[in-house]
Write a structure and sequence with these properties.
337 residues, alpha/beta, Arc Repressor Mutant, subunit A, Rossmann fold, 2 domains, three-stranded antiparallel β-sheet, 14 helices, 20% strand
C-alpha cells in the first residue's frame, strides 16, 4: 500500500467516521450503515476504499461482512492515523460533535446485540437447563481450568469452539491476545455481544472449522478446547490441527466430559463421543506431539468433567486431512459455554 492511497482514503468525512468507529469495535457493514445514517451500498463503497488502502480489513461471517482495523498499511502508519483522528476530535468541534453522535448510535448497536443474545438464550433455556443438570457446575469447571493452566502467561491464545465467548472472556486477562473460533455465525454473534466491551484489539472472532483451522503453523502459545472435542467424529484430526498451529513449548487444554454411558446424548445433543478417559486423551496428545501434564477432575453432576493439558515438544505435525468433524446445534453448543 502507498501513502497516496492512504491519504486518499482519509480524504472523505464518512471514511474518517468509519475509522473512528472501528477503532472502538469491529462492526458489520449493516451496523455501520445504521450508525452513519447512510445506505448500505454507499457504506460498502467507503469500506472498499478503506480496505484497498490497507487501513481496514473486511471479514465475511456467513452472510455478514465485518470491518475492523488493519495493520496492512504498517503498524506505525496505523497508529499514526489513530492518533491523528483522536487529536482531530479534540481540536475540531464539528468533528467532535459528529463522533459523539456516532458513539450514541454505537451504544444502540451494543444494546441490540445484547438483546438479541438474551432472546436466543431465553428461547433455548429449557434445553440448556436439562443439559446443565447433568454436568458439574460451570464455575467449578472454570476454576479448575484456570488452576491447571496457571494464572498468567498464556500468550497468544486460540479458543476453539468459542461458543458464547465465555472461555475467551475468562482467559483474556492472562493472555496477550485471544482468538475465538467457531463454525456457527450465530454463536459468533453471541460471543461478540459478550465480548464487545473489552478493549479493541484484545479479542478476535473468526468463523472456521476445528478440523481445518484457518491459521498459519505455530501461530499460538495456548490452544483450548472447551466442551468441544466430544462433537468430533475423528478427534485426532482436530488435535492434529491444534498441534500444527501451536508453537513449540506451547500448551493445549482440553475440557470435556469423562467417559460415560449416556447414549441418549448422541441423539438429543449430537455428541459424537461419549466422553473420554485419561488413556484416550494421553494417547491422542502423544500422537500429535504433546506431552500430557497432570490434569483435574470436576465432580458435582451426573457426568464428571475433566481438564487435560499437554505441552508441545515435537516438531510441527503435518495436517492429517481436511475432513468434516461433524456438526451440532447452536443451542446445544451454547449450553456448554
Amino acid at each position: 500500500m502507498t501513502i497516496e492511497a492512504i491519504m486518499r482514503a482519509l480524504s472523505d468525512s464518512t471514511r474518517l467516521r468509519i475509522m473512528r468507529l472501528i477503532g472502538t469495535m469491529e462492526l458489520a457493514v449493516g451496523e455501520l450503515a445504521h450508525v452513519l445514517g447512510q445506505s448500505q451500498p454507499r457504506v460498502s463503497r467507503h469500506v472498499a476504499i478503506l480496505a484497498d488502502s490497507g487501513l481496514a480489513e473486511r471479514r465475511r461471517e456467513g452472510s455478514w461482512v465485518f470491518l475492523r482495523q488493519s495493520v496492512a498499511a504498517g503498524e506505525q502508519v496505523s497508529r499514526a492515523v489513530a492518533r491523528l483522528l483522536a487529536a482531530a476530535e479534540e481540536e475540531d468541534e464539528s468533528f467532535a460533535r459528529t463522533c459523539a453522535d456516532d458513539r450514541r448510535h454505537l451504544a444502540a448497536i451494543r444494546e441490540a446485540r445484547e438483546a438479541s443474545a438474551a432472546e436466543f438464550f431465553a428461547r433455548h433455556a429449557g434445553e440448556w437447563d436439562r443439559l446443565r443438570a447433568l454436568l458439574a457446575p460451570a464455575e467449578a469447571v472454570e476454576a479448575a481450568l484456570l488452576a491447571t493452566l496457571g494464572g498468567d502467561g498464556l500468550g497468544e491464545l486460540l479458543d476453539i469452539g468459542t461458543g458464547t465467548g465465555r472461555i475467551a472472556e475468562l482467559l483474556e486477562p492472562a493472555s496477550s491476545h485471544v482468538t475465538g473460533l467457531d463454525k456457527s455465525p450465530e454463536m459468533l454473534r453471541l460471543a461478540r455481544a459478550r465480548l464487545q466491551n473489552l478493549p479493541t484489539g484484545r479479542v478476535e472472532l473468526i468463523q472456521g472449522d476445528f478440523a481445518a483451522l484457518p491459521f498459519a503453523a505455530q501461530s499460538f502459545d495456548t490452544v483450548v478446547f472447551h466442551q468441544v472435542l466430544h462433537y468430533a467424529h475423528q478427534p485426532d484430526y482436530a488435535l492434529a490441527e491444534a498441534a500444527r498451529v501451536c508453537r513449540e513449548g506451547g500448551r493445549i487444554a482440553i475440557v470435556d466430559l469423562a467417559a460415560h454411558d449416556r447414549e441418549d446424548l448422541r441423539r438429543t445433543h449430537a455428541h459424537a463421543r461419549l466422553g473420554f478417559d485419561d488413556a484416550q486423551i494421553e494417547a491422542m496428545l502423544g500422537r500429535q506431539g504433546f506431552v500430557a501434564e497432570p490434569g483435574a477432575t470436576v465432580d458435582g453432576g451426573e457426568l464428571a468433567v475433566k481438564v487435560w493439558t499437554g505441552r508441545r515438544i515435537a516438531p510441527a505435525v503435518p495436517q492429517i486431512g481436511r475432513k468434516s468433524a461433524g456438526t451440532r446445534s447452536s443451542a446445544t453448543r451454547a449450553a456448554t459455554r
